[in-house]
Amino acid sequence: MPRKIRIEYPGAIYHVMSRGDHQEAIFRDAEDRARFLDTFGEACEKTGWRVHAYVLMGNHYHLLLETPEPNLSVGMKWFQSTYTQRFNSRHKVFGHLFHYSAVPDSSASSRKRLGRSIDSCNTVTTPSSDPKSRKKMK
């Protein structure tokens, strides 16, 4: 069964969650986390995304993103495929790395709850669109 059509519109806020394929690790070390954040920063520059919060875990990550343009699908395709290519090249492996989902988030109370939830996973939240401005990673 195909997935539901993703709802995209200017100014949308999404909770994006992505797990490693077969729940495998998406980061093997600090270098992978740095490459991930660098690639994410590039994606934010290309798309204009505003990052409200994020957390990186061993086999998954969460993002709270605002998309000024309706470009989540295109941006996520570029971001995840580019990071996967870099990860695979570095570790001399091949194949898929991620499965992602995104849920539009329209209520302020839901965003606050999600922000607190992400915050409790040892991330620093910030309204900056530059993911390098967040320092603490698990």
Keywords:
138 residues, alpha+beta, Alpha-Beta Plaits, four-stranded antiparallel β-sheet, 4 strands
Q: How far apart lie the N and C ends?
A: 35 Å
Q: What percent strand? A: 15-25%
Which oligomerization state do the chains in this entry correspond to? Answer: single chain
- What Rg is obtained from the alpha carbons, in whole angstroms? 14 Å
CATH superfamily annotation: Transposase IS200-like
What order do the helices and strands follow? EHEEHEH
Number of domains: 1
* Structural class label: alpha+beta
Give the class-level CATH name: Alpha Beta
Give the helix level as a range of percent: 25-40%
Shape: globular
- Biggest β-sheet strands, sense, barrel: 4 strands, antiparallel
> Helical region count?
3
Poorly predicted sequence stretches spanning 5 or more consecutive residues: 123-138
Question: In a few lines, what is going on in this structure?
Answer:
The chain has helices at 30-47, 72-91, 108-119; strands at residues 12-20, 50-56, 60-67, 98-104.
Please characterize this protein's 3D structure:
- The protein has 138 residues and is of the alpha+beta class.
- It has one domain (12-130): Transposase IS200-like (Alpha-Beta Plaits), CATH 3.30.70.
- Helix content is 36%, strand content 22%.
- The chain has 3 helices and 4 strands.
- The chain has a 4-stranded antiparallel β-sheet with strand order 2-3-1-4, sandwiched between helices.
- A hairpin with a 3-residue loop joins strand 2 (50-56) and strand 3.
- Helix 1 packs antiparallel against helix 2 (72-91).
- The chain is globular, with a radius of gyration of 14 Å.
- The chain starts with 11 loop residues before the first strand and ends in a 19-residue tail after the last helix.
